[in-house]
Fold each of these.
Amino acid sequence: MTVPLYDPEPPTSLARIIPSDVTLRFDDSADQQPQIILEIKAKEVAAELQSDSHLPKITYRFNATDVKHGAEETLSASHLKTTFSPVETPQFIRQTQNLPTPEWSSGDQAHPVEPAVVLGFMPLENGWAQLPVPNLTEQIYLDSESNQEPEVDREPQTQSHTDPPIALVQGALSLGNDRHAVLSHYANEQPWSLTITDADALQGTWTLTIEGSSLKLTAISLELQNPAVILNGFFWLSTGQPRLQDALPDLDNWVAGLRSIPLKTVSPQDVFPSVMLLEWPELTLQVRADAAMPSAALKPWQFSYTIDPDNLKELTDKKVLPKNIFRNELPSTLPLIWQRHPYLPMIQALPLTQNQLPANYPSASRQLVPYELDAISTESPRPQEWRFAVTSNQGLRSGRTVLEKLSRLKLGRKLLICPSCRFQYQG
């Protein structure tokens, strides 16, 4: 929604944008019907950033010219870099797994946090991803002086009611399927939402076609550059504790066995800079054209689990984290993929089954084999193409898969936590 620059009233909608430039022009090209073109702009992105092909952006498209299939309406986010809370997420994992809160002391005798990571278990289509999360606390950030003071753009006493707002977006725009009325129609989807809270710049075009004495809206094109986004329902971790039988959590608690971890786009003003990043090459939503309950539908999507090298270097230089954080020799802190072997059936070793009641009851995860995730071999090893994807329109209910580059993993080295044997025969 847009309003005139002189409107002093607070917004009455969930989100609104005050444009800085509005242009209205008439187009009567010979090869099409006469049109009225409305163009708006709000703020400007620096010239050196406009040519950056990897600049995060959100693009909205509306096209009503397709008579056969009706109007098409999509919203695509590209090159988003998001992260979870580097304080609340490890705290959640420690609480669910009954782990102690880490301590760290500064000075010449400083030693890296032990353990340096806690492991979050993300469900996959046929197993689990055992992902490392730096074992940090708010106190560790403060003691190591790795936090940032929140910036204040303008002193409150100097801001008058007639001044334009500091943020480009007033309010927030949230799209998703997390309303109960929508989820009841699409039971195969997980609840999710994408919320836009701000952006660095916006430009858009409305196209109205003249049909007789009336105007018909035929197209809209909007682009938000470097948006601030919050994602819910895309990154889920187990609320269970790894069991003695197989070193994995289970989903016996099918009501609350998983929790959605909120994600937000990375900002230079983050108070606690995060080491881990989730990068999204493209995330597309599309309006369900023939739906009984109008809502946004997720197209297939993927993300990479990686790091911010600058934030990691700062914490390793201060001896808060070790340089081999992703290549620890301890099996209990290795990043692993637990999934079925594509060709060979597996059987757990007998001692593991003796921990179960009854002892002859087979474990639900007996076919899962640990595969070690690859890391780039440098002075400070880091994740190499840890990519995960949902390849259907059914959301996470259809499963999350490890992409092909991760399928060529070597069997975990010396993983004595889960011995097993396998059967194979020729022919």
Amino acid sequence: MKFKITKETLYTYEDLVSLSPHTLRIYPRVDLHFKVDQFHLQSNSDAQIQYRRDLHDNLVAHCFYPNTSNRLGFRTTIELSVREKNPFQFLLDSHGLKIPCQYKDEELAVLAPYITMAENAKLPSPLAPTIPRPTVETLANINSWIFENIAYERRESSHRHTAAEILKRGSGSCRDFSTLLAETLRQNGLATRLASGFVWEGDKPEEEKKASSSMHAWVETYLPGAGWIGMDPTNGVLCDHHFVTTAVGRTESDIAPVNGSYYSNKPVTSSLVTRLFLEKLD
């Protein structure tokens, strides 16, 4: 199976501005299921682009702009070879059969930051910690509860809602779904990180698609014996080969597709236009 992904982003400014260095987390994670056949990133003509690994081992493009401009553009083209992945094909170690998992000391030495809760929000009983429960069944129930009880809304705003706010609103974007699931899993003693990337939604009716025109966010949780397992509460599923991960991290800022600023000695308004195309080549 092959995918082609084209992502275009254009910021325009009403006057010339100075641009800070920008970081892009757009390069797919490579493993047994994903191979990058082609990758091409374009930006402004004067851009100097360097690639580095960050703290979470994401491959990040660092873009530098020596000149002022009234626009900032990015165009990324990716071609991927993809092998089928069964998200349930794993065996748990004995200390991971129940939630909360009893992580070993050597696991906790690495995973401790991913268990720390962001806010300790009050969770409804279907999500809240309780007596030890079977791991896979409990994860499926938690994922399904969020999918069924939080209404999806497309939201371009950069404002971040807390888990408590999301529960009170009863709705949210894919980032909000992921924030709520991460808080829930951490309260249940599971090491959890956020993930972002692209999702192939196939032949779903357009009104049912939630990631066809923008990048998507989901969650990965660490299960002894299984490793990091992807969970998408927005769609209520475990993540298979249709989920192309470009970044993972402990917080939302760790996985942001684009980070950067612009500067001027006077107020300058800006606008943003994005387009995303995902094609299945075979």
Amino acid sequence: MDYKRLKFDECKEDVYNIRRKVFIEEQNCPEEMEWDEKEEKDSLYFVAFKGNVAVGCLRLRNIEQNLLKMERVAVLKEFRRRGIATELIREAMLYTQTETSDTSIYAYAQVSALQAYVSLGFTVLSKVWIEDGTFIPHQTIFWGTPVSIEMFLKNQLEKRQEVMKNMMPAIHQFYRKSRLTNKDSRSISFEYLIFII
């Protein structure tokens, strides 16, 4: 198995083929959620090849200074349980250690693959949540120093508080317009909070 680090233009067809089969066909993820041309071009890809056939991939995307997001980890069904995804993740971690300074990685990992990430040193930072439109359980994971984990969590809290601040007027307006009982209002409030957190 060969593992290559590539730019999007160098692996576009291979990456599309793998992700279409894994995420859209197997996992029934909405196609419109899978492709974002800007994100694709802004990412660095790690691709596993068996001969000249691409069988697995992941991407790293720069989110902010010293923080990368690992996304779209996928291996074709017939090549799973051979350590390919684990090796792709190791390659991404090695790149992060050697090619970037003081950089950390976070990801939204599918719960079914969580143990592999933990065995590589990732820390689980969230409870289980369902990704919009997919109905697939995920957890937020992080790889970095304790200080960088603390900074990441603080940043996420600040973002969540800003979302809440911006959403509260709309939620209050919704309550005023509706004729819901207190019990119904509490359940809707809970659903809104789960959605935005």
Amino acid sequence: MNLIKCENGHFFDNEKFLSCPHCSNEQAGIKPEHLLGQNQHDIDTAIPYDNMPVQRKTVGWLVCISGTVSGESFCLREGENHIGRAANMDIALLYEPTISRKTHAVITYKPEQNSCILYPKNSAQTFCNGRVVKTKRTLKNRDVITLGTCTLVFIAFCDKVFSWDKQGTVNN
């Protein structure tokens, strides 16, 4: 690269151009704004506040105490929380080979009961406190959930002390 300065003060690489490309464009009547294209205009990229997606509120956590993701925590949110090995799961246990790729189990928060319920899916082995869960089970704080060789502890956030229905106030 060999930068030189033309008589009008423009810098250019004389190994690529025989003469100053800036001066050549000016002599040809080409304005710099014409080089940008005709259809350039600003686009409003901000999302209007009233169109923003609603963030599901946290209702609890799962903490892995045994398995390849031991020590990791996973946030449980309002509504259904699908647990599986696929990346698109709400609780993605990516490196647990004994977990179903698609929904292995679901934990659903029921606001009217202020509780979380564990549902097994796809005839996958799901245990709670060492017992097989065949249909559903209401979870209690510190229940131990076993999916394949992965062991998770359920930690409740919404309980007798706190509920999102009460506008986020803590009952003492």
